[in-house]
Amino acid sequence: MSLQQITANDLQTGSLENYMANQGGAFGFKNRIINGAMVFDQRDSGASVTITNTSSRTYTIDRWSSYGTQASKFSVQQNAGAVTPPTGFTNYLGAVSASAYSVTSGDIFNINQNIEGYNFADLAWGTSSAKPVTLSFVVYSSLTGTFGGAITNSNNTRCYPFSYTISATNTWTTVSVTIPGDTTGTWGTGNGTGIAVSFSLGMGSTYTGSGNAWTGSTILAPTGSVSVVGTSAATFYITGVQLEKGTVATPFEYRDYGRELMMCQRYYTKLDGTNNGLWWQAYSASGQNFAFNITNPVTMRTQPTGAVYGTWTVTNCGQPNLGGQSTTQTSIYVTATSSATTAFYSSSTSGITLSAEL
Amino acid sequence: MTYQLFQETLLNGSSMINKVIKNSNIIITFAPDNTDYRQFKIDIASGAQLTDANNNVMTSEQANTFLATLP
What is the pLDDT of residue A11? Predict the structure, then answer.
C-alpha cells in the first residue's frame, strides 16, 4: 500500500491491522526467534567456546546452541573476529573452524535455536491450516558458495532443508527463505520444542538430501552445502535472525532490551553475584541447614537445572548448595559448622545459574 | 561426567530423592521437560556411572532399576 493510496477510510480503527494480518504480517512478537540480534551472552560474556560435547548440544549465546559429532572442530563466540556488524546491529554470533576437517557420512555440525511450542502454535503446523513462514538473516563468511540449513520439528521427523548463497567473501549478505507450512507431522505446541531452526557448518551424507522441500527423513542441509569445518580458520558469522509468519521478509523486529533479556531468562538465568548481590546471614545452631529462597527473574520454561558457581565468601559454613528449583523459585542453603552467626555472600565471580533450555 | 543422587531431608524428618547432582555442582531436578534430566536418563542408560546419596557406586543393574522408577 503506497502512501498515496491511504484514505481516511483506511485509517479507521483496525483497518491497517486487518490489512497486515491478511498479508500474513503481525503486530507484536513478529519474530519467533529470541535473541536474533545476538545481544545477550549470559553464559560466556563474549568469551570463545570450543564445541567439545558430542553427546548433547552446547548452549552459547542466549538461546543459541551448537553441536558437533566430532569434538573441537569449531568454536562459537559473540562477535568473533571483531568485524563491523551489519548496519542496524551491534552484535553477531561467530563460528570459526578449528581445522580442515573432512566430514564423514554421519557427521553433523550446526548452529541451532529450538523455539518453544507456545511461541509457534498459532502457525498451525501439522494441520491443513498450516501457515507459511519466512526466515531472514544477515550472514558473513570467509567462504562463498551455497550454504544450507534446516527447519525441523522436535525429533527431526519433519525437515525442510533450505539453501542460500553467499557470493562474496567477508561481506554481510542479507538472506531470506520462505518455507511453506507443513500440513503433516507432529509439531509441539506446549512448553517443549515446537520448531527448530539450524544453520549447517558441515553435514555428512546421511543428513543431506534434496533441498527446499519437506521430507520425513532427517535431512539437515541440502546436498552439496558448504562445509565451514572443512577449511581451517574459516568463519561463519550471523545476526538479525528472524522467523516470521507469512511469505514476506519484513524488517528485523527490534524488541526493547529489557523485554528481550526476560525472554532469554525463561530458558537461562544467571543470578549475578556482583557487589555482594546475594548475601544471607543469620544465627544458626551447629550442624543445621540454613536456607533461603530467591524468586526467579521470570517464570522459567520448566523446573530448571541449577548450579552454584565460583567461590563464595563464607563464615561458619561451607560453600552454599542449591536445595531445589521450581519454575519460579530457587532455594539455597549452607550447613553451619558451629553455633554462631553464619553468613555467605557472593562476588562478581560467584552466583547461581538456572537452565531450562530446550 | 559423574552423577550422584541427592537425598533431601524434610522438616518432618522424612527424606526423598528428587534430584541428581552432575559433576559435583549442577543440580538437576527430576522434571520430564528438563533437557538435562532427559540427558541424565540417556547417559545412565548408556552406562554412565551413578552413585547413591552416600556416594556408593551403583551397579548398572541398580542404576537402571532406579531409572525405571523415575517420571
Answer: 62
